[in-house]
């Protein structure tokens, strides 16, 4: 057909059927492809939902996309968002897992991200110039790894504080303290006197480090020999 022909807003051309303006179909329309004009977008408009269905050769529904007033819903075996035609997958969801392929996942909500179960990741890092805080407001915070847990501060101090006891335990190895100076503050001091009561007691500046049978440490005034046994009554007080 060399010339355009048709009626009203409908024209029949070499490429197929062309509609001008707003068109309405009262019954189903079966086409292979729908294109907009090169200089304008394609708009599908409805007073209610706009639904796109995909069916197999038996007429069974295999995929559906519904744009409603309150939500956009997709029903399919796998949902993907790609960077471009043939590009890498930015978001993928199926019945087994959800995959986010973007270089960075950024959550801007004030409450952060909430995970109902475990989180698996090889690296946890804070934003530049920001501190990293791991907190469990109402329960314990536990870090476990079958090949060891390493905590290091290459350019600063490492501090561990708690309200009650601090336990350092090694079931099969040893606890190794390696530093230029090791200080044990607030150790209790046992009472011991090696001089007669009538003699003026010299100022004590050197102490002996002692251990109770339960492992608690205390200080005893240093003498010619060990004074830990003479001051061992402190083990009963604490």
Short account of what is shown:
With 238 residues, the protein is mainly beta. It is 2% helix and 22% strand.
Which class do the helix and strand fractions yield? Answer: mainly beta
Provide the gyration radius in Å. Answer: 39 Å
β-strand percent reads 15-25%
Instruction: Note the gap between the termini.
Output: 106 Å
Q: Topology as H/E string?
A: EEEEEEEEEEEH
Notable traits:
238 residues, mainly beta, three-stranded antiparallel beta sheet, 11 strands, 22% strand, rod-shaped
Please describe what this structure looks like:
The protein is mainly β. It has one helix and eleven strands, in the order βββββββββββα. 2% of the residues lie in helices and 22% in strands. β5 and β6 (72-75) form a beta hairpin. It starts with a strand and ends with a helix.
Topology overview:
Elements: E1 5-7, E2 10-13, E3 16-19, E4 50-55, E5 61-67, E6 72-75, E7 78-82, E8 89-94, E9 98-100, E10 207-211, E11 217-221, H1 234-237
Antiparallel strand pairs: 1-2, 2-3, 4-5, 5-6, 7-8, 8-9, 10-11
